Amino acid sequence: MTAGSTLLLLGGEEWRPGTEPADRWWLARAARPAVTVVTSAAGDQAERAVTWARRYFAGLGAAVDACHILTGADAADPARLQELEGAAALYLCGGDPALARSVLVGSPAGARLGARFRAGVPVAGSSAGAMVLADPCLLPAAGFATRPGLGLLPATVVVPHWGRATEPWRLAVARLTARHPCLCLDERTGVGWDGDAWRVLGAGGAVVIGPRGATPVGSGAALPRPGTMAPMTSPDPVEERRHE
Question: Domains plus CATH for the chain?
Fold first, then answer.
């Protein structure tokens, strides 16, 4: 883990009242108050997501730029890669994890995003954005299958919207925990990695579920680190995991 690396994972409903504590903590660790929103999960709602982000972050004193990586061509476009390179902080918005995964994992953009994280640029993801930042990445629309993610958080499945998870979601988590710990997050609630430890940020809570049971953690508390649940340290994890 590179000194100063920052990772924020939210359980969904980003950029709404109640998410300010997590976002203020995250923004304070950036070199300047500017956020680049990566819209890969948003699909045809990408512009709407950026508009929402601009309205929200203006209230926190931060500017917002868009990085629209919506296709494989976008993920290799030098202009999009330069947007990632110049970002002070990178935020992967919510939407469809399968969309985000299809264009980011194994791509030049995914590799660049991982490199910026290792260089100390704060990275955040909400809902689908948080899911694809982990490895494996959960794909609810594909029968809750898992596929390789970007791996900033390896060997852990991120499960958003936990406070209103339906029975299929809970059954999927019960099945998955035999192989991987699941980090289950309430909406408008995040967990932040500061380079040394995890902490729950926001009004809700988090639950770490593994083969030995569940550990609920409330807002402000430190999060236990089950198994290998720490951000990645390999030199180029995205390329190493380029497989289906």
Answer: 7-240 (3.40.50.880)
Provide the whole-model pTM. 0.92
Quote the pLDDT of residue 239: 40
CA–CA distance, 201 with 188 (Å, rounded to integer): 9
Contact 158, 135 (CB under 8 A): no
Q: CB count, 10 Å around CB of 236? A: 13
d(CA 137, CA 112): 19
Measuring CA to CA, how many Å separate 212 from each of 12, 138, 226?
Answer: 26, 21, 10
CA 18 to chain centre: 18
Q: How many residues does the chain have?
A: 244
| DSSP collapsed to 3 states, 220-243 | CCEECCCCCCCCCCCCCHHHHCCC
